[in-house]
Write a structure and sequence with these properties.
The complex is a heterodimer. Chain A is an alpha+beta fold. Chain A has 17 helices and 21 strands. Chain A has helices at about 35-45, 50-55, 85-90, 140-155, 160-165, 190, 205, 265-270, 290-295, 325-335, 340-345, 375-385, 405-420, 435-440, 460, 485-495, 500-520, and strands spanning about 65-70, 100, 105-110, 110-115, 125-130, 165-175, 175-180, 225-230, 235-240, 255-260, 280, 300, 310-315, 350, 395-400, 425-430, 450-455, 520-525, 530-535, 535-540, 555. A 6-stranded mixed sheet of chain A has the order 14-18-13-17-15-16. Chain B is mostly helical. In chain B, about 75% of the residues lie in helices and about 0% in strands. In chain B, helix 3 (about 65-100) runs antiparallel to helix 4. Chain B starts with a helix and ends with a helix. Classes of the chains: A alpha+beta, B mainly alpha. The interface of A and B includes residues 290, 407 and 429 of A.
Amino acid sequence: MSDFTSWWSEETGAQELNGDIRSPASGPSRRALLKAGVAAAAVAPFLMRVDDAIAQGITPKRGGTLTSLLTPEPPVLMIGVNAQGPTLTVVSKIFQPLFTYSPTLDFVPVLAKSWTISDDKKVYTFRLQENVKFHDGQPMTADDVIFSAMKFWMTLSLRARIVFARIEKAEATDPYTVVITLKESYAPFMYGFGGTGFTIVPKHLYDVADLRNNPNNAKPVGTGPFKLVEWQRGSFIRLRRNEDYWKPNQPYLDEIVYRIVPDSQSRAVALQSGQVQLAGGNDIEPFDLPRFQAQSNLSVTLKGWEYYGPLAWIDINKRVKPLDDVRVRRAMSMALDRNFILQKLWFNSGKVATGPMCETTKFYDATVKLPPFDIAAANKLLDEAGHKADGSGIRFTIRHMPLPYGEVWTRLSEYFRASMQKIGINVTMDTTDAGGHTARMAKWDYETSINYIYQVGDANIGLEQYFTSENIRNVAFNNVGGYSNPRVDELLAKSRYATDPAERQKLLSEFQRIAVDDMPYLFLIQMSFPTYTTKRLNNVITTAMGISGDFDDVFLA
Amino acid sequence: MKSFVRRFPRMAIGSAIILAVIAMAATAPIFFPFSPWDMRGSPFEPPGSPDFLLGSDALGRDIAAGIAHGAWVSLMIGGISTMASLGIGVSLGALAGYVGGRVDDAVMRFAEFFQTIPSFLLAILLVAIFRPSIFSIIAAIALVSWPPVARVVRAEFLSLRKREFVQAAEVLGVSHMRVVWQTLLPNALPPVIVLGSLMVANAVLTESALSFLGLGDANWMSWGFLVGSGRSVIRIGWWISVLPGVAIFITVLGLNLLGEGLQTWLNPRLSKRDMP
């Protein structure tokens, strides 16, 4: 969410850290890999997804062109160089990670055949697939993995740097074994080392000084099931089947074509008429969801956002009186009907928030609940806090800066204002453009605003910077509201290094309870961007990466 | 009265419409004694439902209240911005026409500078730069719409200056200010009044277009905002966009009729031809 065109981004938050890496040496630590992840590695269920399809009586079929949409057009088609949603959707077919994430955020092997983790959670040993070739015919080896981690991603991605800076050394013990040794155990390591956050690039093409302007960026060479063959700017992107793909007989599709259609109604027509067989992300406006749900030849799913996990909230500058009073913030939260927001503004694409985390994020605690929607109780709370209404029923006035990312966000701000009116809080709107929004958040020049943040699987990667006092800084997509609770700092720091999942659960459960009690943000909804597919298209959403999966098992029946 | 209506039917219809809109704006707080932003019921109620005469929008806000309260915003923005641009246009036009020479050249080049940029794009730019607010919208509309006024006033001044009665005043030693104020301006005014009423219509449209694009003042309900906010849900609730659109249409039509009527009324030759 770092600029107007990015509706989801690997770099959300991290990109705005301005090169600042949280001290990698902040305390000794150990790291636990979830048991489920180890189990997945042991069985290595590559073809599980295809097997599932066969079990349902659908035999994967070779051939056919999948036409999809892409909104907006990416500036460049190179992983790492650009981390915005539309870029990831395309390059995830070209570049592959060591492993990806299942819908429950367990680990699914891709280029790593299996892995082991030492008991002190400091040494990760990855066994690589041995028959993997890059699109130019060169074999992929441990050297490429080490180069990708320590040079390519460390240079290009701030988020990766936060995670990879914990690596003490990365060695190849043989051409197909990579041993990563961490300086200390780091609990969220596996959530920063897979998916679209860490893919393997060829060392022989990228071992250059200027990675951003490498001429090979125009012709990406990866290990993925599809190769980029044509990009007519402003018109379409064409990917063709990689004939030497390392999984036998895969991929099933001959081609994937992404059409770039700037007008939203034209995109809707293309989907409705069957000209495109797949639409997702930003392609279709939320208000078109109900009619496409009713269309019999389409299937619509909200799955595939488990890893990114966008959660919308109202950001509050806690330096401003009376918003510094937790009773005021609780009253504001109680005056918001989240079901209304979800049903009437987002047409049910998502779930109401229950706290700071999405249900799909690891260590989500379902027992944590927000105070219920109750206008009368909210009014009572404000009375108790000493904010009496004047003659015209106004207790106090606050400013609100809407999120300038499109219509639904404007409606949300209007809903917020009308809801606050009901408890005697007058809200004046303070509109600005996307650049101005980011700049003013960074300068702490706001009273209330709206934001949505990506959780990327683990609270210590996606959420931490919004809650810890060390992240109170003049950088957008951080703790700009000035929330400070020493206990939260302590819990998140401990959770960062805790090796025992049960212990992490305890720490993060307490964090979630405090976050709801302190209400530094008014948590609203867990968002999900619907994915629309024609019914002939199979296996589109099989991982937590959704439409940013590699599509090697997608087929047209 | 009857003969006035017969002689100037357009002006009569136009004034009737505008008076009705003014009455609606004035009585909005009586008939809808609540904020048009209030969510007063269930969303997407069609027109004619018990709670909502003209239906409700995506958040359950009353469209009728929005139109009534919005009338005031539209008229206010139209009125004030037109006054402001008349102020700028008349002063600069008078200056250019009266002083002439290099001053005339400078003022006209300045006016052309504004005229060469599409006025709506310039308005968007100005509002976007100065953050959307009721003041920046009024200022932007005023700033982009004064050049035609300046040109008309200048042309009138140029032709009036050569007339005997003006020359007589000058010969008599009347000060420049008095010549402009008492001799020239009253005679130059009729076309400006006509232009003014058309400019109000234009300002109402510009404000609606800005609000439609999301560049309206988010604290004021306006017609353009209603049309824009309903656009995305037009398949679910056509009335959210259509009814405020009809309000804009009728108001602008009324202002145009009024303008044309004023023109025939103030121009004797035309008004004779208009007689039955």
